[in-house]
Design goal:
- Helices cover 49% and strands 11% of the residues.
- The chain is α+β, with helices and mostly antiparallel strands and 255 residues long.
- It has two domains: 80 residues, no CATH class; 111 residues, no CATH class.
- It has a four-stranded antiparallel beta sheet.
- The protein is elongated and about 90 Å long.
Length: 255
Amino acid sequence: MSLLDYNNGVMHGVWMEAEQDVADSRTAVNRMLARSPTAARASSGDGTHTGPTATDRHATRGLRLYVRYAPWVLLHLPNVLHVRDVTYESHGVPLKEYQLTRADHRRQEGSEDIRRHVDGLAEQWRAEEAADPVLRAGRQAAVEQALKILFEARTPDHDLMRWRVRLYCGHITETQRHAETARPTMHGSSSMKCPECSKDPSTIVAYEPIGFADQRPVPPPALKRPTRAQLERRLAELEAEVGDLRSKDSSQENR
């Protein structure tokens, strides 16, 4: 992420490989800054880039720290991310007899109103697409891209909490939510399609957590081995640092 652009109200950045040496990291950062919209506006009249680069002393020091600690972060990040401070809540007892409340009826009516509204919009969109093949093709491509992203970003089982729920229709079933969610009714997920009677939507009226979908320890990611070129560059950097330290020691002894 470019701090220069962020400070000017622009979100600009690139994905960068974490496990690489200072030279490769500097190249990636400079490539990002060269494409900076804010830096482009600050360029000189002849088009020469006058914005910041990753070659100054402070940036080089920061990149060295990044390269030094990135492997450690990658190794320990899963354990850090999975130290959750979530108190899972219960409401009622799904397996016991349950009497629907006025609030349950009100939430069910709200869910059904939303479903009718969505169905109406879908019917309107189908009519628009029938009259405009180009619009239909564009929407279909957007849907396919969204589905691809969803399937590629599948949440691992150790990040899913299993919930036992009682639905408005009276049936009891299980569902899953992200482990950072304290209740299965949060974030617009207060209803679902009943797998028994197919009532859709059917509001969740009682729930309790029953455990993670996968309770095995999270395996650490496999670290990539550095290439020969990366090792040689790293060796040259260390030799240069040793040379600087020796020069400083020599100058202090001559005083």
